[in-house]
Every structure is written in structure tokens, then in C-alpha cells.
Amino acid sequence: MKLGVFGTGYVGLVTGICFAEKGNSVLCADIDRNKITLLNQGVPPIYEPGLKELLDTNKKAGRIQFTNDIINTIANSDILFIAVGTPSGEDGSADLTWVYNVADTIGKNMSSRKILVVKSTVPVGTNEKVKAIVQKNLQERNLDITFDIVSNPEFLREGNAIEDCLRPDRVILGCENKNAADVMMRVYRPFLTEESQVIIMDLASAELTKYAANALLATKISFMNELSRLCEKTGANIDFIKKGIGSDHRIGPYFINAGIGYGGSCFPKDVKALVFSAHQNGIDTPILESVEKINHQQRRNFIDLILANLPKKSKLALWGIAFKPGTDDIREAPAIDIITALIEHGHSVLAYDPVAATNAKAFFAAKSQDFIKNIEFIDDQYEVLKGVDALVIATEWESFRDPDFELITKALKLKVIFDGRNIYRLEDISAQKLTYFSIGRPLVKTNLS
Ligand code: NAD
Q1: How many angstroms does the Cα of residue 181 sit away from the middle of ligand 1?
Q2: What pTM was computed for the model?
């Protein structure tokens, strides 16, 4: 099939490449010239495991092309996927400017029958609005072209995006008629495993399903974080609570880790957008508002814990900047707030992340001189420890899980670790000459003499 994808970000690029991998002819269009130049040189503008290899194979096979030419992409594709960003507006609503811009351009330029598929995460009613924008443009051009609209929210997880895309556990299709559903089934059939479910529903339910999924996952995280505070006050250990409740099959072991809260480009903005959308419809959202509040407090508590246990003008090593392992995405990453607070309080930071340092460097370079002077990015997990007082862990990258504790202990002047992700077993730490602060678990303070 001839597929056009608008937006070559984390979603558009990965899905475009995966569509090509399944034998479709794919045109990926973006307004960002820099991204398209890189992609035409065979360089992915984002880090995602396995992406480069799949990009190379499909470029070589001639199944995928990258372009800034939006109009040509519309003309030469039968199905148009909208995968542009929907960031938070100032009031918490989803900013739909990019989605509507693409819809407008499609309406102004399409001259044959198409299926329009909205992949971006959008509030209830957006697909109807996209349809209206296209219809209005067609009317103004005196064209009587039929088109279908499909809501097909994306569920891939950064860091596991290729696998999620190639073998989805579910495909949600909000469709208005059987024709659109049949064509979409043809697109997705090659991706389905025995366990995959294709769930066909109306547009509004499909739009809301995406928000419901992210909001529920965020709720699980905030629930555990709230409990972790009670653990800290009472001497209970959140690890045991997690094991105890996770073994109940009605609850399950996933997404019940206590830590420094959720970040990234989806959960924070989607919870906010869902609250906004509910309020617009006269519905109160006390659960979701608490989820957000707890998430914010959790990050703040960790920062306060570090600040309360450091002498003035300390030098800290920080492991992990990305909002989670497997990605270079630093949008709403807890590490960014932690670094910012440490520097604002007169400390300095040496930071290491396997793939996200370039994005973080650009982020802090755009801030004041104070930041530029007080943060340094080091390209090695152990080099970054040289001459520092303490270590902060902000992302649970695999390479941090089983480190050389002797080396760490030797390097840290104050022999202190602040672990925001609970990546070490307390028994392992107790065997070291370290003070270890983690989340919802007893403090480990071994004999330092
Ligand atoms: P992103 O910011 O990484 O990429 C968006 C891209 O759209 C950018 O490259 C931008 O230049 C491009 N763009 C903007 N206007 C355009 C236009 N008129 N024509 C063509 N391209 C245009 O965003 P993302 O992380 O890929 O997210 C895209 C959508 O998917 C969002 O709604 C997001 O909520 C949703 N989503 C994201 C994830 C994720 O893990 N990142 C997962 C599921 C769903």
C-alpha cells in the first residue's frame, strides 16, 4: 500500500519504518528540514534500539522515503497518517495546532479519495474536527471527494518502540464505516501475532482509550509513590509491598515501582489533557489531580532529600538523564529538574547518560551561564565519579544495575548514593561501605570507618 506519514518524531518515524518493513511503500514527511536531511543521510534523529538497522534495510530496499514536501506526500499516498506532536498548552489542554495544520493542508491539496488516520494522542472530538476541516476545504474547492477518518492511537513505548510496533498487543481502530475498518485491517494484518487484538470502536472511544491507558499507568505509579512515603515514615519496605500485591493476579507486577515519578513526553501531558478535557465537559477529576500532585511532590521530595544531606557547594555525579532507559528523550525527565535544583542551590554536577547527553547539553546550553559553568557531561559511567562527593541515580539504565561497587565506594568522597529508582538490593548495598538513600525503603548506613 502507499502510505504517507506526517511527522518523523518518535511515533511517526518508528511506525513509518515498520510499515515499510512489512512491504508497504512509505513516504515520511516532516516540516523539520534538519530531521529530513539527517534521515536522507541514513542518520536517525532520535535514539531507539534497532531503528538504525531497520532504517538502513528499508531505505536500501527503496520502500521508504523522507521528504519536506507535504503536498507531494498527500498526492502520492492512499492512506495518510497524522503523527505530529500534541504538547501541553499553558492551560494543560492538548495543543492541537500541528494536527489541525496537517488537516488543513490535506484539505487544501487532496484530489483523490483517501483515508486519514490520526495517530497522535488527541482529546475526544478531535477526529471530528479534523474531518470538518478537510470537508470545509474540499467544499471551498468545489470538490466532491469522499474520504474516511480513522482514530488509531499509538501505544508504542520509547526504548521498545520497534518491538511494540512490529508485534502490537492491541490495535485500536476508531472507524465510522466498514470500508475504513477493512482497509485498516489490511494495513495491520501483517503485524498481528496470535496474542494481538484488533479492537474496532467509534472515534470518541478510540480517542479516550489512549488517554485512559496512560492515565491509569500514571495512577499506578503515583499510588505506589504515595505508599512509599508511608513506608519511609513507618519503617516498612516498599519492595515487599510491591512483591506482596504484585503476586495477586488481579493486580499484577507491572507499573508498581516506587521512584521519582513518571516523566517523558506522554504521561505528564496526557494526564493534564485528560483533566482539562473532563473539566470542559463538567466532570470533576479528583483522582487524576492527585496523581499529578503526587508525581510532582515525589520529585520534589527526592530533591529535598539530596539537598538536606549534602554540604554546601558539593560536586555530584548523576547517572541517567533520559526520562527512562532505552531512549534519548529528556522531555519532562526527572533528571532535568534534579540537575536544575542542584545547580540553583550552589552545587555542581557531572552527568552521564549512554544516549541522552547530547539533548541535555543542548537544553542546559540554552539556560544561563550559571548552568553552563556548573554542569559537565562525561562520556563514561565511572569517569564521571572522579572527584565527586556523592552519586545520584535518576534513570534505571541496565548498565547501572550491577556496577563495580568497590570503584564507586573508592571514588565518592562522602560515600553516599541517592537512588531515585531503587535499582539495588538493600542486602547488596549493606555489604558496601556506603550510605544509601532510596525510595520507600530503609536507609542503609554502613560503618564508614
Ligand atoms: P515528536 O515531537 O517526537 O515528533 C513530532 C514531529 O511532527 C516533529 O518532527 C515535527 O517537526 C513534526 N511536525 C509538526 N508539524 C508538522 C506538519 N505540519 N507536517 C509534518 N510534520 C510535522 O512527537 P512524538 O513523540 O512522535 O509524538 C507524536 C504523537 O504521538 C503525540 O500526540 C504523542 O502524544 C503521541 N504518542 C507518543 C508516544 C511516544 O512515546 N513518544 C507514544 C504514543 C503516542
Answers
A1: 24
A2: 0.96
